[in-house]
Amino acid sequence: MTTYLIRRFFQSIVTLFIVSIATFGMMHLMPNGVARAMLGKNYNPTSLATLNHKLGLDRPLVVQYWNWLDRLVVHFDLGYSYQKNQSVNDLLKETLGQSIYIVGLALFFTILLSVPLGVVQATRRNSASDYTITTFSFIAYAVPVFFLGVVLRDLFQVQFHVIPIATQIDSFHAAFSQPSQMILPVATLVVSGVAGYSRYMRSSMLDEITQDYVRTAIAKGATKRRVLYGHVLRNAMIPMVTLIGLSLPTLVGGALLVEQIFNIQGIGVLTINAALQNDFVIVLGTTMLTALVTVIGSLVADISYAALDPRVRLT
Amino acid sequence: MAVRNTRKIVAIAGVLAVVATAAACGSSKKSSGDNNATNPVTTATSSSAPAKQGGVAHVAEWAPGTSPDAIWPFMTSDQLSTSNAGQFQYFFYRPLYFVGLNDKLAVNYDMGPADKPTWSADGLTVTVPLKSTWGWSNGEKVTGQDVQFWLNMLKAEEKQSGYYSPPNQAAGVNYLPDNIKSTTVSDSSISITFDQQYNQNYIVGNALQTVTPMPLAWDVTDGNGTKGKCSTDTLTSPTLQADCDAVFKYLNTAGKDVKTFASNPLWKIVDGPWVLKDFNATSGAFSIVPNAKFTGEHKPYLDEVDFEAFQSPDAEWTSLKAGSSAANALQIGVYPSADTPQYNGKDLQAGNPLASAGYNVEKGALLDSIGYYQVNFGSKAHGNLFKQAYFTKALQDDMDQQGAIDGPYHGWGYPTTGVVPGYPDGNTLSPAAKAAAAKYDPSEAKSLMQAHGWDLSTNPATCKSPGTGDNQCGAGINAGDKAEFTLEYPSAHPALDTVLAAYKQAAAGSGIAVNVVTKTQNTLGGELVGCSTSTPAGCQWDAILYGGWVFSLQPTTDSLLTTGAGSNIFSFSDPKFDAAVAKTIKSSDPQAWYDYEAYASSISLPLIWMHNNIWPWAVAKNFHDSGQDAFQGFEPEFWYYTQ
């Protein structure tokens, strides 16, 4: 296990290093550079040179990368956005909260609903309830998140005024102090999430139900209920845990479409706007953060898998 | 200096102008050009019911995704934009002269701290009287020294400043502060002596309009209030650079610290009608409240205006659809292009999709602007083609501006007829320019190509008569060369897709293959550099639609088209044109404009005119909105709830 962890740690470092180089390189592929785009109509050779110098873009690419990496590794300083006039760390602090709030809540409710639905479908396979849930799952799965979000928003906020239109959710405080505003974005994500997760849970349960140990347990006189919830469900949850672990990056990646639809200034919107405005410092920062959490998430998933399933040995 | 605080936003505005729809109202009149354009008249339809004092208004920030990022009214090149200037800083800090109110191209002397200027007999010295009633919120008067402070800063920080333009040798003019020989300062005025005679309207409307007096309390070098010396120097002080450097460093840092916009005591010292109440650093949303000490003529009606930030036009549209009586409802928003009602000159409210939601349709401003896509005379592949006057004329003839306005833009727009905007009212338009106004005439385009040695039986047309004669293809074009080029334009704008698909088709009919390609706005911005040995990438692009150009009060193209001008990335150079531009800057004689326009319309310019948009505003029915000015700014002191 220790050997495995050490190996995975170094693999993660290499992965993050490659991601950083790739992202940094891509960000600098822009013809004539970021400063030119920032200047817009205010461009002239003097203003371009001045801004390039201010941004440190007149230095060799390797030097720029090294400086950025040095700040990141030594101080966990993700850099400074000259377009937003704020440090990326501050921007992340200001946007992560609402993204984690929404995605976290959505993930929580998704699991809360998916597991029982999956169990019901598996245990009552080919029944009316199975078909009904499956049908709804397929519909929910087929409907794109952006469409569902817009429909829910227009229905409940615009048509029937069940939930008031909010001004922008641009802080964690705003997200927390206006819980009604969180209902629709969370619901949008939950509906989409449940569709996938419940199907996954159903499959996982069905895989377990057909295992020999289930038949053995029942043959030994264990009640169906005890077998189902004492053994089958626990084992069926193992792949689900992996799935949840791999979903962790979405917490920091944000839910871009939902954030856009419901006017939430989360990390997803921050990243996409930064990409559109060639604010490569922010894109680098959010990309690295997402990569870091992805690496951690997959590691957590693997370790959890091993912890939950004695048959799995991490070497 | 034709630097209006709109340069950066023009890119956005120009493109949005092509992207978004705009509102106009009132009746229609025939264009003075040949294109039979229907031009929206610029009369406001906002409620004329009596004003109610007080109340809080919620207003959408003008363009989703753009918000102020600099509060100190001395912006660096990357900060210079209308989202910072006319839509933010001017609320608090007034430039000497305010222009463009009520969509009229004129100076509005009642809006700023300076009265009408007087000129010396020799035309070299202008005296700017400062209103005795105009003061700062800290109790001090606005004096000549405050103006000198700004000029000193400009002199010391030329390289940093977005307001600075280097001397224009082609036009034979210097810009602020290089064109100032000396200044004389008093409590009640500042006199500025220039290096030569200039068009006096140009000096007031283009140069002094950028100058914003700064309170002496800002002459500090650190957060402890250590006094600086920048405000007390003169332009020739030997220590000016060092004195102003220290102040610039501190104010520039403070001025872009979005987190402290609303809390920094420096920015509470205002002379405009408003003061910043709060500012959300993350979203850019902000609130303004009346400056209780404001001594100007137009005091605010409202108790507060909240400028709401939206991430997308769709989010804003949702808020509007919820109705003007909903909680946190917007009083002013913008119709997204897809939901813009068809313009109806007789009844602006006809087909208003927000009528039942409690909103009226109102027109946005007709900007003092020209819409265009730009061609690159320095393009390695096709520069020689663009230099031919007949070819750019053909390209223009294939551009159906009115079709674009009537079609994907639902009637909200006005054509660009030439180098000087025909709308809004106020510009000097020559008969020659009117006669040569851009028009849609594909058959003429075809004839021009045929008459200049192109074989239209091939696709695209090929040059069959190389040479420089009247009936030949032109200099640098060889036999067999194809009449084709690539036109890049911003992605994710369906209306533009429609316009340029039609253009491509029309051009094909003239034998010209226009290969249209979409890229993100910022990618296009990055590509837009001039062709030179140090910037070889500038020799690669053929044609780009990036955005139009919003002029200063005097619509001269010194910064855009003269040889070596900062924004002349087209490799365009014509000494006669330079001389004509120079006259418009140096002479107050209208004939200078006539000559300039006439010459400009006779040559191949690197700009193919496209229509300008007018923004369609949704304004709550119980709210009076004064609209934007002709330079994209807002004046919330004229907004109020109606009784």
Give structural notes.
The complex is a heterodimer of chains A (315) and B (643). Chain A has 14 helices and two strands, in the order H-H-H-H-E-E-H-H-H-H-H-H-H-H-H-H. In chain A, a hairpin with a 4-residue loop joins strand 1 and strand 2. Chain A has 315 residues and is an all-alpha fold. In chain A, 39% of the residues are buried. In chain A, helix 5 (88-123) packs antiparallel against helix 11 (224-253), helix 6 (128-142) crosses helix 9 and helix 11 (224-253) runs antiparallel to helix 14 (280-308). Chain A is flat and about 85 Å long. Chain A has a two-stranded antiparallel sheet with strand order 1-2. Chain B is of the alpha+beta class. In chain B, a hairpin with a 6-residue loop joins strand 18 (454-455) and strand 19 (462-463). Chain B starts with 6 loop residues before the first helix and ends with a strand. The model of chain B is unreliable at 1-45 (pLDDT under 50). At the A-B interface, helix 2, helix 3, helix 5, helix 7 and helix 12 of A face helix 1, helix 6 and helix 13 of B.
Tell me about the biggest sheet of chain B?
Answer: 6 strands, mixed
Radius of gyration of chain A: 24 Å
Main interface: chain pair and counts: A-B, 55 and 64 residues
Tell me the overall shape of chain A. Answer: flat
Kindly state the percentage of residues in helix of chain B: 10-25%
Count of strand segments of chain B? 28
Q: What overall geometry of chain B do the principal axes of the alpha carbons give?
A: globular
Helix segment tally of chain A? 14
- Report the strand count of chain A: 2
Low-confidence stretches of chain B: 1-45
How much beta of chain B, percentage-wise? 15-25%
Low-confidence stretches of chain A: none
Short description:
The complex is a heterodimer of chains A (315) and B (643). Chain A has 315 residues and is mainly α.
